[in-house]
Design goal:
Layout: H1 4-18, E1 32-38, E2 41-45, E3 59-63, H2 64-70, H3 78-87, H4 101-107, E4 115-119, H5 122-128, H6 133-138, H7 143-149, E5 154-156, H8 163-180, E6 186-189, E7 193-198, H9 201-223, H10 232-240, H11 242-250
Parallel strand pairs: 5-6
Antiparallel strand pairs: 1-2, 1-4, 2-3, 4-7, 6-7
The protein binds zinc ion (ZN).
């Protein structure tokens, strides 16, 4: 079992990092964060709160199993989903968890994933709302992007946020793991935003900021004649290099 106050403090610090106004990752109530705290428990941002100013009272402890089980009932109505979110709270007096708590719960069951951060960065969404979304997700442009974001990102089509989106994220990530053999670090949601998965808050922040940097570079490259990605062989070489693994550990990724 994780030290609860330490997990809460780590989650609040990550939320404040992701919610910083100057970073343009999320404004107002956009985005949400979570961390696993035990075999069947996690902390998630409450509905209607802001990442940049998130307080302990705006974080809700929930059970994982009932929310993961919801993903097998994709057609459940909004009222039933709302009730299930409320029922998953460990303390019935706590605030209602984010409507995205289902995908957080499932992603936190993946090996090596202890923190999840979901944001709506302007630069990333410029590409996710464009014909470049697919290429942006599948390709890598520079070595540090491979180090922080993995060899490719998972792309999910636009789906209504909530239960339906949770199901689509689970299916897309499962099929990515089946074909690549690794847990992705970045999931991109068309016309919506990005989800970063990490063993640590530093890993989530690095994957988020580096995806934003890659998006800015891609937008610049589009105006400079068109993006030229790294070759697959060069991406695989960086992903497999032992000195890059050392650097990942040193950066807390
Ligand atoms: Zn969102």
């Amino acid at each position: 079992m994780t030290d609860l106050p330490a997990a809460l403090n780590s989650l609040l610090a990550l939320s404040h990092d992701l919610g910083r106004e100057d970073r343009d990752l999320a404004i107002l109530g956009e985005g949400n964060t979570s961390t696993r705290t035990g075999p069947d428990s996690f902390l998630v941002k409450a509905s209607g709160s802001s990442l940049g100013t998130l307080s302990a009272a705006q974080v809700t402890a929930c059970r994982i199993a009932p929310l993961v089980a919801l993903l097998d009932h994709a057609t459940l109505g909004d009222t039933a989903v709302d009730q299930a979110l409320l029922d998953a709270r460990i303390d019935p007096a706590a605030r209602k968890p984010s409507v995205e708590a289902m995908f957080h719960a499932w992603l936190l069951t993946l090996p090596g994933v202890h923190f999840v951060g979901h944001t709506h960065p302007s630069a990333v969404n410029a590409l996710l709302c464009s014909p470049y979304a697919e290429a942006f997700a599948r390709q890598r442009r520079f070595p540090d992007e491979v180090v922080c974001c993995g060899p490719e990102s998972v792309l999910v089509p636009y789906i209504d946020p909530g239960l339906a989106l949770g199901c689509a994220i689970r299916d897309a990530v499962k099929s990515s793991i089946a074909s690549t053999g690794i847990v992705p670090r970045v999931v991109l949601l068309k016309n919506h935003g990005l989800i970063a998965l990490g063993a640590t808050p530093a890993g989530v922040l690095a994957a988020t900021l580096m995806t934003v940097k890659a998006a800015r570079i891609t937008l610049g490259a589009i105006t400079a004649g068109g993006p030229v990605p790294m070759s697959r062989a060069d991406v695989d070489r960086i992903a497999g290099r032992s000195d890059e693994h050392y650097r990942q550990r040193a950066l807390g990724l």
